[in-house]
Every structure is written in structure tokens, then in C-alpha cells.
Amino acid sequence: DTAVSQTPKYLVTQMGNDKSIKCEQNLGHDTMYWYKQDSKKFLKIMFSYNNKELIINETVPNRFSPKSPDKAHLNLHINSLELGDSAVYFCASSQGNGAETQYFGPGTRLLVL
Amino acid sequence: AQTVTQSQPEMSVQEAETVTLSCTYDTSESDYYLFWYKQPPSRQMILVIRQEAYKQQNATENRFSVNFQKAAKSFSLKISDSQLGDAAMYFCAYRSPSTGTASKLTFGTGTRLQVTL
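The joint structure predicted for all components is written out below.
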């Protein structure tokens, strides 16, 4: 009964390819997030959706496109992958988009060759 | 914009001893939330402890406690009776109570904790 799950856990791909990472939460939460953790372990918000509506869109290249088909899912599609996209991507969710605690998925390690 | 600073890239503690990890933050808000997350080698981000700024009492969760100094904008994590399983990266994080674009977590750069026998 995993709370926040991501697939795949590992993704190795060539530059220029398009790939997707899926996230699902079974906590009944309204808000979901994508964070990126770079090679120096620094974590930074990318996107947030509340009830399928985009509420946070940090300065992220438009090659990154989040999609929320319903409030339990937030997928991340990346076009034309670049070497610098190599990182660990974390999905998270919270009850609302206030101060509630965010719960994280296990992360997806993306390696672009 | 809020910033979070963790000035200790690495710390080491002997098993059963106590260690304190430092975190300072910068904000102009009077109400906010602070968190410590643990990231073991498995990469999973695990919530350790949470503190509401309006609460004067320091949060405690079993062997983990915080020293929250609001005026100094300091939020340190104390781990008592350290165990080998405590070895991990520890991240301090800030969150505004506001909704919408302010609902993101702002993380520090992390402190790697080693636990030795």
C-alpha cells in the first residue's frame, strides 16, 4: 500500500529522446508536486498541481510538460532530453496546497547519455 | 524569497551519542512551517519532524527534537542515542503557510550524517 509511487525508478536514455515519468498517490490528497534533485543533492520545486490545476510553474524549460489526468496522478513528460536533465525526480503530494506536510515518492533516477 | 542554509555539509557521530544539525533561514513572514527530511541511500525522502512557527514549544519525535529559535531564524535538529540507521542526508525545508505559488518547499543544501561504531 505505497502512498506515493513513481515509475520507472530508473531511466537511462539517449540525448534527444522523449520520456515520461508517472506518479500516483493513494492518499486522497488534492495537491501534487514535482521536484528535481541535481547531482549535488540540491532539491528544487518544478511544478505543482492542485485538483488538476497548475499552481506552480518554476523556471523550467518548456521541454518539461506536466500532465494531471486526475488528482491522484501527476505525470512528467520531457521532450528532447539533454545531458543536464540527468537528475533524480521526486513526486510529492499533500492534502491541500497550504502548509500540510508533503509526502514524497521514491524518486526516479534519470540518466541521459 | 525565502532561503534555507545548512552550513554543515558533513557531520559524524558515534553510535549512541548525540548530534545536532544546523539550519538557518531567511524570511519576512511571521508565520511559516519548518521541516526536517531524511534521505537514506535508498533515496526515499522521509519526514523526520515538523515545526509550526506560531508554536513556541519545540517539536519532538522520539529520539529527534528541534531547537527552534524564531528571532534568530534558526531551526536545528538534535538526534539523541544515534543509531546506524540514522546515517543519511538530512534536509531542512521551509514552507510558507500561504496557498498557491507559495506552497512549495524550499530546501537547504543538506547535511550528510555518518554514524560510526
